[in-house]
Design a protein that fits this description.
globular, Jelly Rolls, five-stranded antiparallel sheet, six-stranded antiparallel sheet, 13 strands, mainly beta
Length: 182
Amino acid sequence: MIFKPLAIPDVVLITPRVFGDDRGFFMETWQARTFAEAGLDVNFVQDNHSRSRQGILRGLHYQFNHPQGKLIRVVSGEVFDVAVDLRRGSPSFGGWVGEILSAENKRMLWVPPGFAHGFYVVSDTADFVYKCTDYYAPQDERAIRWDDPDLAIAWPLVNNQPPLLSEKDQAASWLRDVESTS
């Protein structure tokens, strides 16, 4: 696997080795020893899978008292995946990084605890899977507006149309009002 730190170095883009032929392919997506050797010595407690259609934006979500690290990949379709640094003492607080993750490129993203996370579906549909380092705690979940001007995220909106959001995401807070995760 290739582990590439992004502009916010704690967020890591991971490219697995893919072995393929005319029958299909095989790739390893998680191995504790390989990840620990790359500096990602984490313990996952939960796996999640969601399916969304084109134009759906989920996020930017984070948990206040139980921050989750996430290992993310797309098994069908394509998304633009975003991590926002919410660690108050961090030099990159309020900074974001975004990457295209797809079934075709097979890349994964490590988003450490202390970050808000969201994704936007570019393809007709996308199946999105991720491992978490802490359990989902709905009482601790918070959200930041996808269109916060202080973030100025360059979402690749299809036909320049606004994304479809859940009620919770429509009511999200501004970055300036965020409860930091550390």
